[in-house]
Amino acid sequence: MAGFPDPLKRLIDEFERLPGIGSKTAERLAFAVLRGRPEEAKVFADALVDAKKKVMSCATCSNVATSERCDVCSDASRDQGLVLVVEHPRDVVAFERTGRWRGTYHVLLGRLSPHEGAGAEALSLKALEARVAGGKVREIVLGTNPDTEGDATALAIERRLSGKVPVTRLARGLSSGGAIEYAGTEVLAEALRLRRPAIGGG
Predict the structure, then answer these.
(1) Which of left, alpha, beta for 30 (phi over 0: left; psi -120 to 50: alpha)?
(2) Are 32 and 89 in the same domain?
(3) Which of 12, 37, 124, 201 is deepest in the core (most CB within 10 A)?
(4) 92: CB partners within 8 A, 6+ apart
(5) Residue 37 CB: number of other CB atoms within 10 A?
C-alpha cells in the first residue's frame, strides 16, 4: 500500500513529536504547511529557528527570556519580595493578563508526575530554595494547577520551605482539575487576592 512520500512523512513525524499532537493532527498540520505558499513555509521555518536561537531561561526565575533576566525580573518596579510559583511560562502570561500581580515569578518548568518519570530533580526547586536563602523573599505564593499533581507539587514545596519563609496558596475559586493557563483573568485575580496560608508554610 502506498504511503506518504518521505519528505512529507518526515514533516508529519516531526509534528507528531510535539506534546499533545497525535498522528491525525500531525497530518493536518503538515498538509496545511504544504498548501501554503513557499514564502509562508520559509517564514514558519525561520520563526522556529529564530525562537530556538534567541529564547532562553531566565537565570533568576526560569521564565522564558531573550537575555539573562526576563522582563519581569529586570523590572525595577516589581516587588522582588513576592514570588508566585507556577508550573510553566504559559502560566506567567495568564497571571500577567490580570494586571493584578506586581511581584515576581518562579517557573518550575513542570510538576511532580511520577508516572511520567518527572521527579523533584526535574524541577527548578533548588533555584527557588536559593532565592529564599538569599533573604529578600518575604512570601512565596503557590500557583500550581488545582489538580492532583499540582497539589502534590505544592505540598512538596511547602515542606521544603517550611520555617524558612511564609508560604501561601491561591484561593480555591479555581476549578478543581483545571489549568491555570485557561482560567479567566478575574478568576485568577480573585485567587491571588484571597490567597491563604499554606499548611505548614512557614
Answers:
(1) alpha
(2) no
(3) 201
(4) 63, 72, 86, 105, 107
(5) 8
User: Residue 49 pLDDT more than 50?
Assistant: yes
| Structural contact between residues 171 and 196, judged by C-beta atoms closer than 8 angstroms | yes
Q: Under DSSP, is residue 5 helix (H, G, I), strand (E, B) or coil? A: coil
* 48 and 109 both lie in a single domain: no
Asked, for residue 60, whether it belongs to a domain, the answer is no
Query: What's this model's pTM, rounded to 2 decimal places?
Result: 0.80
Which cell is 58 given? Answer: 531566565
Give the domain range for residue 30: 6-54
Whether residue 133 sits in one domain with residue 49: no
pLDDT digits (tens, 9 = 90+) for 24-47: 999 999 999 999 999 999 999 999
Joined together, the cell numbers standing for residue 102 give 506586581
* Beta bridge partners of residue 168, listed in sequence order: 141, 197
